Amino acid sequence: MNPALLPAVRSFLSSPRQLLIDGEWVDAKDGRTFATVNPSTEEELVQVAHASSVDVDRAVVAARAAFESGSPWSKMTPRDRSHLLWRIGDLIDAHADEFAQLEALDNGKRVEAAREGDIAIAAELFRYFAGWATKMEGTSIPMSVPGREFHAYTRREPVGVVAGIVPWNFPLLMACFKIVPAITAGNTVILKPAEQTPLTALRLGELLLEAGVPAGVVNVLPGFGDTGAALVEHHGVDKVAFTGSTEVGKKIAAAAAGNLKKVSLELGGKAPNIIFNDADIEAAIAGAVLGGFFNEGQCCVNGSRLYVQRGVFDQVVAGVAAAAAAIKVGDGFDPTSQMGPLVSQEQHEKVLGYIGGAVRDGAVLTAGSADRVGDRGFFVQPTLITGVDEQMAVQTDEIFGPVVTAIPFDTEDEVVAAANNTVYGLAAGVWSNNIGTAHRVGARLRAGTVWLNTWHADDVTLPRGGFKQSGWGRELGSFGLDDYTELKTVIAELR
Ligand code: NAI
Ligand code: MG
Fold first, then answer.
1. H or E element, residue 435
2. Which catalytic residues are annotated (predicted)?
């Protein structure tokens, strides 16, 4: 066991973790469990209950009862919910070191990165939405009916029981992306964390109870794709909020048809990062490195396709390659590490497979390697690939690892066409000191987020989501409650 671990973390890992259903910690009905693994060491951390469709049924019954009018949750005022959300944010901050260690153990990312990124933003998300709980306003709308008088207005009401299904790249944060807007609007939730990284969502479940979230309002059901599928098919679920692969997003859209549950999807990406000759080249190189390798490359908005104008191509490639080669890859608990391992053996094999495939297709590894780093742990050296064409798998597919391709271009029209030549549309970026070029090209890129002369600049106040096959709906910001509410129109005749 790692000597740096906090007593609270040791204690959390000392017994099998259970499901949270109706305010109680329970085993899966069929007793099934699975191991969650430390990707730096490949050692088992703890066994976790694996929810089956029977457990999904129990959670749906609990979430429905908690939602119904007359329940303690339904009787809470918007102000009560606001204060509750703020309290949870403070509790997360109070346990930030513990969350950061659990996240680093389960996902592999650096403890420091988890604390300053994932955990701090998760806490802020609760506080940001605490403000919205009291501001979910409707409008009053005039009607024109000769000889009669009406008062018509809209109300925003919760959708009902929401299933949140989330991935492993930002485990706590993605859980909060679903839970926070859902409960802000008065919904109840069943959260299905990713099988690779269930721990912080389970710890959050404990804090939610401690903060005073009523039983059944948030249920946490770890499991694999079968657990997620059981939620998506369940007719007692009113909405699914999903983040993950485009492949599974399509399955969810199809499976949701049974009761036409609402669906919001945040799916894959393959973001183009375009550097013009007239860019601030040093800033652009730093942005390409951050955009390419942030979170071990396991981030849907990473700039994995670099397009560099011919005049600065060699300079940018040399700069990014040097920075990639200098990144120290190692255990997330080692303070000298600059990048941790990938999340799982499956992801490790997938990413190394893509790099090896690119070499076989004739591409050049300007930095990095198709070989694993070390003989234990799922480490990959950050990789920059040149000599790529648009048809290679490494260029078309979302790889989700520290792998960036670089292709030269000559004209704006040419690069816009290449950048948009993808099924994805999550993020894109432009580097140019010409304000006209930056904004014009930004407008021409088909993506939900466009960064100009920056990358990964972000705030919980900003909406995010995808064009094309990168998804349906937008999360966070002032738009982030739309998908968690139904709009009701009320018409009263004034007699
Ligand atoms: P995935 O999409 O299979 O898993 C995401 C979540 O969906 C997990 O909680 C999983 O248990 C659940 N799930 C799987 N099958 C399901 C089904 N049929 N019905 C309902 N829920 C289901 O992603 P996976 O397998 O972890 O990663 C594969 C690739 O997907 C990655 O290499 C990456 O390219 C992409 N991905 C994209 C993410 C993003 O943020 N856009 C996040 C994670 C993965
Ligand atoms: Mg999968």
1. helix 435-444
2. 266
Are the C-beta atoms of residues 348 and 376 closer than 8 Å to each other?
no
Find the ligand nearest to 350 CA: 1
Domain limits at 350? 272-459
Q: Which of 98, 103, 195, 266 is catalytic?
A: 266
**Is 464 among the domain residues?**
no
Residue 123 to residue 126: CA distance in whole angstroms: 5
How high is the pLDDT of residue 1?
Answer: 61
Side-chain-side CA neighbours of residue 105 (13 Å)? 26
In sequence order, what are the beta bridge partners of 363? none
| Ligand 1 touching residue 234 (CB < 6 A) | no
> Ligand 1 atom closest to Cα of 344?
26
Is 412 in the active site?
Answer: no
By most ligand atoms within 8 Å of CB, the mutation choice from 237, 245, 396, 399 for ligand 1 is 245
Give Cα 476 to chain centroid, integer Å: 12
148 and 19 belong to one structural domain = yes
**What's the pLDDT at 2?**
81
Residues 253 and 381 occupy one common structural domain? no
What pLDDT does 78 receive? 98
Distance 249 CA to ligand 1 centre (A): 8
Residue 465 lies in a domain: no
Please tell me whether residues 449 and 477 are part of one structural domain.
no
Give the residue ranges of the chain where pLDDT is below 70.
1
Tens digit of pLDDT for each residue in 360-409? 999 999 999 999 999 999 999 999 999 999 999 999 999 999 999 999 99
Q: Which residues contact 143 (CB under 8 A, 6 or more apart)?
A: 150, 152, 491
Per-residue pLDDT, 399? 98
Query: CB-based contacts of 462: which residues, under 8 Å, 6+ apart?
Result: 449, 476, 477
Using CA positions, which residue lies closest to atom 25 of ligand 1?
245
CATH (domain of 332): 3.40.309.10
* Tens-digit pLDDT profile for residues 268-282: 999 999 999 999 999
* Number of domains comprising the chain: 2
Do residue 33 and residue 61 come from a single domain? yes
